[in-house]
Specification:
420 residues, alpha/beta, 4-stranded antiparallel beta sheet, globular
Length: 420
């Protein structure tokens, strides 16, 4: 192996155009929600082929505000995957609804759709699938499972506000609110993330493919909601329930405002949006580079018993998919937690940072306290116990990727020799 390098896990890719865009906003005198935020919303909606887009301070708040806009709260149930980050489920708790967790299918990071169908009850108001690693879930199978529950009489439309009632009646199933934190730029059957699920939340956190440092957005499908009214609701939710944002109030004589309800404070700023717009302008080239890196990993690690999540191909329906290549998720076939943890330490000793995505929710104190037990989610645990995520970001050079490939071989050999 060549001289040791330091390979960070996921640094942001910030270029001079990004810095210039942010400086331009700082010098403009307008740094909070304003014209650049609105422009980013328009461009994201167009990019995702969505009916509309609203931006927020995080994807978590995008998920929560979506649930609130649909009138979901106490007495309602929302189902999400046991294999995800807490944000997919904490939003359910925030609105006072009851979270239900679905195990993954055997050997899969997606929910078991047969089990999902059995979890549907008359109280089910929404499903939150998770596009883990940037690969969109099997939405056709998901929609079919939900419609099956309706056909069997275990679910019926019961949305208590106009937006939810309209969507449920049209769909004949619960609303699907995707956690697409990883999947901006991914496609399913040729359609982009943001237009397939009924609603999709994106994350622009510092480690995401496209970053605004912190931030998120929500898109929704065409022809399903009253688009203008839904957008207005999101703006009210994100800014204290105030009927005018700061920019609107600067117009001559337009200071007057009202508070429609006691809302929240989770709006995006023009500083963030400027960075997002700059990154979006070169996003396709960033995605292309990510896929090049994935291909290099797949070729370089093909001789190891390492199961790498596929990021491009044809699914079980014979339809094409392409992920956003957000995470290089791999499983150490036939191994367990001890081997995986030793492998991560061996990589670190060689200067390579790696991670685990994710601990299933029932392993975490917050969800144990809600009554969930990992013993009820054996497939999710099996996916987790030997999962390791390798560095995948656009700051990696070809030489860096080759170094990681060599480090993985060395680490695997070292841990295997030690019998971990």
């Amino acid at each position: 192996m060549t001289a040791q390098r330091t390979i960070p896990f996921s640094p942001p890719d910030i270029n001079q155009a990004d810095r210039d865009a942010v400086c331009e906003v700082l010098q403009s005198g307008w740094i909070t929600t304003g014209p650049r935020t609105k422009q980013l919303e328009r461009e994201l909606a167009a990019y995702a082929h969505a009916a509309g887009c609203a931006t927020f301070s995080s994807a978590t708040m995008a998920l929560e505000c979506a649930l609130r806009a649909l009138g979901i709260g106490p007495g309602d149930e929302v189902i999400t995957s046991a294999y995800t980050y807490t944000a997919s489920c904490s939003c359910i708790c925030h609105v006072g609804a009851t979270p239900l967790l679905c195990d993954t299918a055997p050997g899969s990071f997606e929910m078991d759709y047969d089990q999902l169908s059995t979890l549907i009850t008359p109280k089910t108001r929404a499903i939150i699938p998770v596009d883990l690693g940037g690969r969109m879930v099997g939405y056709d199978a998901l929609f079919a499972a939900l419609k099956r529950a309706g056909a069997e009489g275990r679910w019926h439309p019961a949305g208590e506000n106009e937006q939810a009632a309209r969507a449920e009646e049209k769909l004949g199933r619960p609303i699907v609110l995707a956690d697409g934190a990883h999947s901006l730029g991914a496609t399913y059957h040729g359609e982009p993330s943001g237009s397939v699920a009924d609603m999709t939340a994106f994350s622009f956190h510092a480690v995401k493919n496209l970053t605004t440092a912190e931030g998120g957005a929500l898109t929704w499908r065409r022809g399903l909601f009253d688009d203008e009214e839904l957008y207005r609701t999101f703006m009210l939710l994100s800014l204290h329930g105030q009927t005018k944002d700061a920019l609107a109030k600067t117009k001559v004589g337009a200071w007057e405002y009202d508070i429609a309800f006691p809302g929240y404070k989770c709006n995006m700023t023009d500083i963030q949006a400027a960075l997002g717009l700059s990154q979006l302008a070169r996003y396709e080239s960033l995605l292309a580079r990510r896929h090049e890196i994935v291909a290099a990993y797949e070729a370089g690690l093909a001789d190891l018993p390492l199961e790498i999540m596929a990021h491009e191909g044809v699914d079980e329906d014979g339809q094409p998919y392409r992920s956003s290549a957000h995470l290089l998720i791999a499983r150490l076939a036939g191994e367990g937690e001890a081997f995986r943890n030793a492998f991560i330490e061996a990589l670190a000793a060689r200067g390579v940072a790696s991670n685990v995505h994710y601990k299933p929710l029932p392993l975490l104190t917050a969800y144990k306290d809600l009554g969930f037990s990992i013993h009820d989610f054996p497939n999710a645990f099996a996916q987790y116990e030997n999962e390791v995520t390798l560095p995948l970001h656009t700051c990696l050079s070809d030489e860096d990727v080759a170094y990681v490939v060599d480090a993985v071989h060395e680490a695997f050999a070292a841990v295997s020799e030690n019998g971990s």
